Amino acid sequence: MNVPIVDKPSSDLTDEAVDTFYSCAVCQSISPGHLCIVSPEHPGQCGVYTWQSCRAGYAADLIGPYQPVPKGRLLDRRCGQWQGVNEAVLIASGGKTEKINLYSLIDHPATTCNQCEAIAAVLPKCNGFMVVSRDCHGMTPAGMTFQELRRYIGYGASTPGFVGHSKKAVTGRKFLAADGGLLRLVWMPSKLKKEIGDSLQQRAAELGVPDLSDRIADETMGVTEEAILPYLKKK
C-alpha cells in the first residue's frame, strides 16, 4: 500500500482533508479491546502519537502497531463518525464496541486507554464537563481522582459521559465539538490550565471569548459541583 504524502504540518490539517486515519494498538496489552483512532484533529490519547507520527510509523513498519483506517462513508458529521472507523473498532473490541464518535463524550464516545493523558467527564449539575490530567492527583467535581476515573473507564470500554484524551486535544477545534466544545468546559486543575495556557488563550480568541480561561473553575474554587456552581454563575 502506498502511503500518501501530505505536505501540510499536522496543526494545519483537518479530518476532512484526509481519506485515511490511523489506529494505534501500542497499549492493547493493558487495555484489551481498546483501539486508539488517530486523526489530524484527534491525537492519540496518551499524548505521544499524532496522525503524522502514526503515518510515519506505518511507513517504517507495515505490520507494526500503527495501521491505516480508511474513513469510509461519513455517518455523522457533527459527532465525527465514519463507517471505516466503526468497522476497525468493532474488530478490535471483539464485537463489544459497534461504533464511536470522535467528537463526543456523551453519545458513543471513543474507548479509553489505560495510558490516557487526560480524562473528560460530564458534570450534569454544571451543564458542562471537566477535564483532569494524569499528573493532577487531587479530587475532582466528578467525585473521583484521575486514578479512580482511569480505573473506571480506562480498559477499553466506551463509557458515555467519560472519555480519555491528550492534553493537546483540549484546545483543538474538534474537541468534544458535538457537546459544545471548549465553551462547555467548566473545570480543570490550575496546573493543567497553566500548562496549556498559551494555546487556550489562542483558541479562546478564535471563539471570541478572550476571558474563557477565567470562566473555567479550578480546585481553588472547589472540587465538587455544588462548590463551583456559584463561581460559574458569576461568569
**Oligomeric state of shown chains:** single chain
User: What's the total helix number?
Assistant: 7
Indicate the CATH topology: Bifunctional carbon monoxide dehydrogenase/acetyl-coa synthase(codh/acs), Chain M, domain 5
Write down how many β-strands occur, each being a DSSP E stretch of 2 or more residues: 9
- The SSE order reads EEHEEEHEEHEEHHHH
Arithmetic mean of pLDDT = 93
Uncertain regions spanning at least 5 consecutive residues: 1-9
Beta-sheet strand percentage?
15-25%
Instruction: Tell me the major beta sheet.
Output: 4 strands, mixed
Label the overall shape.
globular
| Second CATH tier, the architecture | 3-Layer(aba) Sandwich
Overall radius of gyration: 17 Å
Structural class: alpha+beta
User: What's the name of the CATH homologous superfamily?
Assistant: Bifunctional carbon monoxide dehydrogenase/acetyl-coa synthase(codh/acs), Chain M, domain 5
SSE topology:
Blueprint lengths: L19 E5 L11 E3 L12 H10 L5 E5 L3 E3 L4 E2 H10 L25 E6 L4 E6 L12 H8 L8 E4 L19 E3 L2 H6 L1 H11 L4 H4 L9 H10 L1
Parallel strand pairs: 7-9
Antiparallel strand pairs: 1-2, 1-3, 4-5, 6-7, 6-8
What does this structure look like?
The chain has 235 residues and is α+β, with helices and mostly antiparallel strands. It is built from seven helices and nine strands, in the order E-E-H-E-E-E-H-E-E-H-E-E-H-H-H-H. The chain is globular, with a radius of gyration of 17 Å. Strand 4 and strand 5 (81-82) form a beta hairpin. The protein has one domain (10-234): Bifunctional carbon monoxide dehydrogenase/acetyl-coa synthase(codh/acs), Chain M, domain 5 (3-Layer(aba) Sandwich). The chain has a four-stranded mixed sheet. The protein starts with 19 loop residues before the first strand and ends with a helix.
